[in-house]
Amino acid sequence: MTHTRRRFLTSAAGIAAATTAGLAGCMGTASATTGTLSTRVSDKPGDIDDFESCVVTVSTVRVKLADGEAESLDAGDTALDLVELQGDASALVEEFELETGTYEFLQVEVSETDATLADGSSATIEVPGSAPLKFERSFEIRADETTTFTADFTPVTAGNAGKYVLQPVADEVTVAYESDETESTETTS
After folding, report:
1. Least C-beta-crowded within 10 Å: which of 88, 93, 104, 151?
2. Against a cut of 0.85, is the pTM above it?
């Protein structure tokens, strides 16, 4: 083998090794820039005692990264009965992989409600302004961690016509952080 050919093969092997290492490094970095948002719903006792069932369908969750645009996330039309979610009970809406960073808020879009009062009659439940329920609570998405955001809302009586509106309960929102690698948990209220 000639000296030139040996030098070429050595150079080619070095380039291949460097490229492989570079690609492996890129793949490792990509996973470190995302975390999981676990969105849950709970119901603070309000006028919920008026109901036999109060099913809300969550279609979309919206979040806004502090230095970015609001992002809509498909919640798959998750139906939840708020009567079953009183006290410390909560139910999973959906989990999402998100970019790491600080998020300014979380919104829950309720696309449908189906409610039956304790006396067996139907109830009308509306979302104020047909807008998503907005929770002005900042939270972080951390690399390789799960952030659990529990949004709390409840139906409240709107006048004497048997109508109710869903209202966010800001002081009942909780955010918890859990490492995907360890059992450590951090909770903020």
Report:
1. 88
2. no
